[in-house]
Design goal:
Blueprint (H helix, E strand, L loop, with lengths): L6 E6 L3 H12 L4 E5 L6 H6 L1 H19 L16 H25 L3 E4 L2 E5 L2 E4 L2 E10 L3 E3 L12 E2 L1 H4 L8 E5 L3 H12 L3 E5 L11 H13 L3 E3 L2 E9 L2 E8 L6 E5 L1 E4 L3 E3 L6 H4 L22 E3 L10 H15 L13 E3 L4 E6 L2 H7 L2 E7 L4 H5 L6 E7 L5 E8 L2 H13 L4 H5 L10 H10 L7
Parallel strand pairs: 1-2, 1-6, 2-3, 6-17, 8-15, 9-10, 9-15, 10-11
Antiparallel strand pairs: 4-5, 5-6, 7-16, 12-13, 13-14, 18-19, 19-22, 20-21, 21-22
Helix pairs in contact: 1-9, 3-4, 3-6
Length: 465
């Protein structure tokens, strides 16, 4: 028994934040339980987020490559390419089952008790999970986030879907209208576009992908347009009416103006996510949320109530699985009396479209607010491997402090941008200068050489342009 409590650590939520925190706490010798109300572990990411969306992105890319891609150019004749959507969905489900089952195995291996059910606070150290009341010396809130609803648009998961419904569509939409040109809209829009849908993205702001570097946002928009996406920027949706198998969407310019109607076979609502705190009875623990519904913590993930900690999508910061995972490790280490740290200045983000769009650190706009910067850019068209592979779109951009040359941000649009950004994150974590990257030997021929050349371009001396 842990100091008279049932557990040393009780984690609420078994997403990438919660399950990782539970495993690390157990590894550190703490008696650990994890409450999860879903039928399977892994949270949003494994069940209805990162993993199933990447499964469909991979599958749809294979389909598109075979049906309309470069295979024929390389002398690979695929014949009549047909889509078997049921099999595609089956393989997606298998991927999810394998990974969520893997977390269950890890829980058993680490002797973590899974308390099945919805958890709510009874006091600062006590929680009810279903009918069971448990106490814990430390409680970690890792309840994640859910889809933000759009007032006036009722999701029916058939014709008007959120991201979960968009993963399950049983037919390829003839016309998918995506509300919100963010990460989900572009990833899932890409899936259905590749499988044959016409896709229109309606975005409230004047540009897609808020939060990313301005030049990257503009270039991404151009690339998606070239792929056949239609965009209605600076446009708001004011209503959606389902009429049998179609949906009539009313849209108007964001600042106001004449309304128009767009007819869609399917609508995806992807305007963001909001933290999950409803039903937790936070008030019984003496906790409050901020005006964005998030639980505030200090740098060590302590909330305002001693013994209660919070991590992942439910606290401020980017809503990303790897951020939640790193916070999960750090919070467990802090609870165990070690020093758990997450460097929130170096959290990479990746949009898994084709090409992938990735960034870490500051945008050029943000960096300029801090002082003078030097920027180096290198186009993927001039990278031998990307050119050979017929992957000409995109560039790498390195932003460095003009005085110290320290790298402040790196942005990549490239077929393997998500893989390339790891190197940039590591360099930044080590406090690298652009010269450090430029003088690091990169294997040839790799896409990563474009990062080296962009770093060389910071001081004006790339070789291949
Ligand atoms: P979650 O994963 O949301 O897990 C929280 C868990 O807590 C849930 O399982 C929930 O059932 C449980 N829970 C909530 N309240 C209670 C309660 N009271 N009692 C018991 N259990 C409770 N991020 C990336 O980094 N890369 C990606 O490629 C990516 N793709 C995504 C694609 C989609 C379609 C979506 C929707 C999201 C994607 N994300 C991606 C975001 C990522 O899924 C989240 O950032 C991540 O899951 C957050 O982890 P978390 O542990 O904070 O919360
Ligand atoms: P998002 O915040 O990325 O994008 C939402 C978009 O909707 C924004 O461009 C916003 O301006 C727009 N918008 C908001 N209200 C609108 C309205 N009324 N009409 C039209 N447009 C409107 O949110 P998204 O795409 O829903 O994703 C949610 C979260 O999930 C993100 O925070 C992201 O971090 C995470 N995620 C991460 C992925 C990854 O890492 N690859 C993949 C998918 C999701």
């Amino acid at each position: 028994m842990a100091d008279g409590f049932d557990f040393d650590v009780l984690v609420i939520g078994a997403g990438p934040g919660g399950y990782v925190a539970a495993i690390r706490a157990a590894q550190l010798g703490l008696k650990t339980a994890c409450a999860e109300s879903r039928e399977t572990l892994g949270g949003t990411c494994l069940n209805v987020g990162c993993i199933p969306s990447k499964a469909l992105l991979h599958a749809s890319e294979l389909f598109e490559e075979a049906a309309h891609g470069t295979l024929a150019k390389w002398g690979v004749k695929a014949g009549n390419v047909e889509l078997d959507l049921d099999t595609m969905h089956g393989t997606r489900r298998e991927a999810v089952k394998g990974l969520t089952g893997g977390i269950e195995f890890l829980f058993k291996k680490n002797k973590i008790e899974w308390l099945k059910g919805l958890a709510s606070f009874e006091g600062a150290n006590s929680v009810k999970v279903g009918d069971r009341a448990v106490t814990a010396k430390n409680i970690v809130i890792a309840t994640g986030s859910s889809v933000t609803p759009l007032p006036g648009i009722a999701v029916d998961q058939e014709r008007i879907v959120d991201s979960t419904g968009a993963l399950e569509l049983s037919e390829v939409p003839s016309h998918l209208v995506v509300i919100g040109g963010g990460v989900i809209g572009l990833e899932l829009g890409s899936v259905w576009k590749r499988l044959g849908a016409k896709v229109t993205v309606v975005e409230y702001l004047d540009q897609i992908l808020p939060g990313m570097d301005g030049e990257v946002r503009r270039e991404a928009n151009k690339i998606f347009k070239k792929q056949g996406f239609e965009f209605k920027l600076s446009t708001k949706v004011t209503g959606a009416e389902r009429k049998g198998d179609t949906v009539a969407l009313t849209v108007e310019p964001a600042p106001g103006g004449a309304a128009e109607t767009i007819e869609a076979s399917h609508v995806l609502v992807s305007i963001g996510r909001r933290p999950n705190t409803d039903g937790l009875a936070l008030d019984k623990a003496g906790l409050q949320v901020n005006n964005r519904g998030q639980i505030e913590t200090d740098h060590d993930f302590r909330t305002s109530v001693p013994g209660i900690w919070a991590i992942g999508d439910v606290i401020p910061g980017p809503m990303l699985a790897h951020k939640a995972e790193d916070e999960g490790i750090a919070v467990a280490e802090n609870i165990a009396g070690l020093t758990g740290i997450v460097n929130h200045d170096v959290i990479p983000s990746v949009v898994y479209t084709n090409p992938e769009i990735a960034g870490v650190g500051l945008t050029e706009e943000q960096a300029k607010e801090h002082g003078e910067v030097k920027v180096g850019k290198f186009p993927m068209l001039a990278n031998s491997r990307a050119k050979t592979n017929h992957e000409p779109d995109g560039f790498v951009k390195v932003i460095a402090d003009a005085k110290t040359d320290r790298v402040l941000g790196v942005w990549v649009i490239a077929s393997v941008g998500g893989t390339m950004i790891a190197q940039a994150a590591q360099a930044m974590e080590f406090g690298a200068t652009s010269e450090d990257i430029a003088y690091t030997c990169h294997a040839h021929p790799t896409h990563s050489e474009a990062l080296k050349e962009a770093a060389m371009a910071v001081t004006g001396k790339p070789i291949h342009i």
